[in-house]
Amino acid sequence: MLIETFDIRVGLTEKLELPGLRPCTEIYKVGGLPLRSEVYILDSPEVKSVACHPHIVGDELIESMGMVAYDAVKALMELTSIGELEGDEIVFEHVLRAAPGYCLHEALRGLGIDFREVWIRPRYKLPSYRDHDEENVKEIEVVYQDFSMIPEGRDLVVVKPDTEASGRTAEVALQRLHEEAEKKNSKLRELIVYGFISEYGMRVIEEKALKVGFEKVYFIALGDITALCYNMYDMPLYGPDESYYSEYREVRKLGGITDYQVFEKYVLEFIPGADQPGDWSARQKILFTGVGYEPGGIVKHLENSISLVSRLWEISRGQEWFMEFHEEAMKKELEQLRNKLNQMKE
Questions:
Q1: The three-state (H, E, C) secondary structure of 193-217, written as one string
Q2: CA-to-CA distance for 68 and 63, rounded, in angstroms?
């Protein structure tokens, strides 16, 4: 019933068997999308926990993402050319502040893959929590960048982990990378995008990547290819669009893309309409800014998550699709969020 009600696409995936992955980790190739890219979904118990439970923060978040990243790199070594390249052919683009929390750079190093590192911090000029709408397109500025490690005269494979909702910070990051690579007479050949990714963001990023010269694009999405809410920020697997309801007082139903088996695993724990990555920077203890380190904002993330889950409960209660297990999941998550918040304030 939920699959039909929310138009969750569970028929586009093909499970792959790749060597080196933990038995609990699954990877699926996604077909049938109007994209030229190769699209994959990587899922594991850690991905599910992070996506379904915003109370997972700090060290627990980083530990979980570290385990996922090792599986991701092993998959990438089978699916892409990175395992066969020299270190100065791979450029890792760190999008600050949040993206290093995906731990992919550490997993690459841990598995013996060398790479060059570049850094960029695009930032919305206006406060952007849960608000990346059309009016703010012009309001992204780059407050830090360091592309000095781009090699001279090479064909480059670029690895870029990040949370990709609207794709707009990615557009800026790829444009700057293109400009700096041109200065070094280097060519952008392949792009690997990894993290929580919306279908909308995929389309935006692919278009930009092809425009700046990439010949091939890979997406490795965690858990599912998400829907994208009206605010161009929240990334649910499925559920009501809270931002649309707040604006128009109408329930707008959203559904993403995943494998049927993945959906079965998520359904008892996922809160319909919840933002799976949340504010990724705020879930982390400490963040690199390019010039130093600063705290992420865990307390604020927990408070915001309590507010969002509570509003989703109000919107969903009484809807024909809303079931007892949804209510139980919301109750349990709110209790865990409040407990975590109390621990942080002690």
A1: EEEEEEHHHHHHHHHHHHHCCCCEE
A2: 9
Would you state the structure tokens that stand for residue 119, as one six-digit string?
A: 């850094």
Per the CB < 8 A criterion, the answer to whether 266 and 237 are in contact is yes
* Tokens of residue 327, six digits: 């209510």
Q: pLDDT tens digits, residue range 295-332? A: 999 999 999 999 999 999 999 998 999 999 999 999 99
Q: What is the model's pTM?
A: 0.95
Of the candidates 60, 75, 101, 62, the residue with the CA atom closest to the CA atom of residue 22 = 75
- CA 188 to mean position of chain CA atoms: 22
pLDDT at 130 (0 to 100):
53
The DSSP line for 44-103 is -HHHHHHHH-TT--HHHHHHHHHHHHHHHHHHHHHHSSGGGS-GGGEEEEEETTTGGGG-
The one-letter code for the residue type at 174 is: L
Tell me the per-residue pLDDT of 206-256, one tens digit each, with 9 for 90 and over: 999 999 999 999 999 999 999 999 999 999 999 999 999 999 999 999 999
Checking DSSP bridges between strand 155-161 and strand 187-198, what pairing results, if any?
parallel
Of 278, 261, 192, 191, give the one whose Cα is nearest residue 223.
261
Q: Is the peptide bond before 97 cis (omega within 30 degrees of 0)?
A: yes
The yes-or-no verdict on residue 129 having pLDDT over 90 is: no
Token readout for 292 is: 């130093």
pLDDT tens digits, residue range 10-35? 999 999 999 999 999 999 999 999 99
| Sequence-distant contacts of 313-321: CB under 8 A, at least 24 apart | 315/240, 315/242, 315/245, 315/251, 315/273, 316/239, 316/240, 316/272, 316/273, 319/240, 319/251, 320/5, 321/1, 321/2, 321/5, 321/6
Alpha-carbon span 344 to 311, nearest angstrom: 23
Q: Which residues of 129-146 are buried (b: 16+ CB within 10 A; e: fewer)?
A: bbebeeebeeebeeeebe
